[in-house]
Amino acid sequence: MQFFSFDPNNPVFQIKDWTLSLQIITLENVYGLDPDGIRSSEHADTAALQCVGLRWGGGQQYAPGSVDVLARFEPDGMRVQIKAEAPEPIRAVKIMIRHLPPLTALDQLDAERAVPPEGLLDRYPNQLRLPIACVRTLDGETFGFRCEDAEHRAKRFAIYRERFAEDYTVECIHEEDARLFDTRISVPDWIFTRAADPAAFRADQLAFNERAAGLVRWEDRADVPEWARHLRLVVTLHGMHWSGYTFNTYAQMIDTLRYVAARIDGGQVLAYLPGWEGRYYWQYGDYRPEPLLGGESGFAALCHTARDLGIHLMPMFGANCVNAWRSNYHLFGPSSHMKTATRNVFHGNQPDWDTSRTQDTGWQAWLNPGAPAWQRELTRQIMRLLDQYDLHAVFLDTVEVWVNDPDFNMLEGYRQLVAELHQRRAHLLVTGEDWYDGLLPLFPIFQRTTKWRQTPDWVGRYARLMGHIADSEPSRGSTGVFESGYAPYERMPAQPHYLPTIAFVDGTLERSQHEIDSVIARARG
Predict the structure, then answer these.
(1) Which H or E element spans position 422?
(2) Could you read off the pLDDT of 478-516 as tens digits, one per residue?
(3) Is the previous residue joined to 125 through a cis bond, with omega within 30 degrees of 0?
(4) Which is it for strands 38-42 and 46-56: parallel, antiparallel or unpaired?
(5) Which of 140, 326, 396, 472 could serve as 477's disulfide partner, Cβ 3.0–4.6 Å?
């Protein structure tokens, strides 16, 4: 996290017992309030601040513009609305809560984190699941900051000690949808509170999402097919690694499904297929049964056997990542690149697939599902497979990856994609890799991993969680097609919203029958 090498001279103003400053961040500079243009008033239930004129360059230069702040007082805090106008398109508005005592930050499981000398920066939705930050003073007082934004636009929270003082500052930043950058902005409501109970504070945010942003409790979801409500077990059948190493052919997958169905009702089993289409990630963007795994006839036999056993197959598709070196890429890729707000082409993760230790994955293109060409092509490929093999579930990889694209809104793109799939196949189960609150209304089942993102229990009110492919299988700790290679094996948590999951690579069925049987027995209940 970087800071200016000078005092930006942001005017400090007081609303009740909150000490605040504001910055207006345009696409070309950072502006503060003109101290000579500030007028404020405070009443029993509200306070208002108007400023005519902006300052830049540490307050040395003047620019036209205006800021209006309206605060409505609530028990233990206040609700803040901000409108601003600037000479250039506004990217973000930052409100700084200042003159705070030394702080620790609370993570998403409410555990305390120290604030290092360089400060802490958390981004929503890329890191945070909700646009909430909580901090705690050394004497135990808790402050909460959250934003009620039904459009799930970008938020950032920075916590740090001031450069030349002992005081701490919390920055709450709202960034506009990059498609809508304008010289005027209206910021969704920020809620600041003291003596916050983190669980209650979070519950208020979830209540807002239920009320205004389409968040639905699991028992009320309309996108869960009746058959999916009876699922008790997920089996992950790894196909082919990026390198071409085969973990399971389609015939070997059949052997595993038969073994499982002999021990649990097949109607309670979801079979998840990563690497079914051939070389994992390398084949992304051109989905079809892999000849080296058994080809079309082998895949058809797998689908037929699964149906006979009552098991539902769920093939994996890259929602936003494809191989740009494939021959069909020119048909949908060049117009669909994911981009940052200032049009840097986004390049996502860069696994060391070939172990050259370079992580040079220029062939991986990251595409926006809101871009019409890619959305159409992905829908076409998914539906072709589902129709040809009569499948009823699909998994979309990396849906949690997000950028503030100036051409196509990614969340809107997923809404359109999922709606189109459901329109064509009403009882289709559409699941996703990872989640934030904006994705929870779209996907009823997600992968769960604690390896890089925390999973609070409250998510179980809205969705079910299954094992991630980064979670290893029990015979040797292999992560199959996933790039980490090996990891300690562990079972899913024994809670109702977790679907017991067991992964299979080559040798798992032969070497780990005791653990497989134990997981199945637990799933049976």
Answers:
(1) helix 410-424
(2) 999 999 999 999 999 999 999 999 999 999 999 999 999
(3) yes
(4) antiparallel
(5) 472
Other Cβ atoms closer than 10 A to 52: 16
User: How confident is the model over 148-198, as pLDDT tens digits?
Assistant: 999 999 999 999 999 888 899 999 999 999 999 999 999 999 999 997 799
What is the longest distance spanned by two Cα atoms in the chain? 79
CA atoms 318, 335, 359, 242: torsion sign: positive
* Residue-level pLDDT at 448: 87
Look at residue 452 and tell me whether its pLDDT is greater than 80: no
Task: Report H helices in 171-263.
Answer: 198-212, 250-261
54: Cα separation from own chain's centroid? 35
Residue 216: its H or E element: none
What letter does residue 5 receive in the DSSP assignment?
S
Q: Is 0.90 surpassed by the pTM of this model?
A: yes
User: In the chain, what are the domains?
Assistant: 13-212 (2.70.98), 230-319+378-524 (3.20.20.80)
Nearest 5°: the CA angle 344, 154, 346 is 20
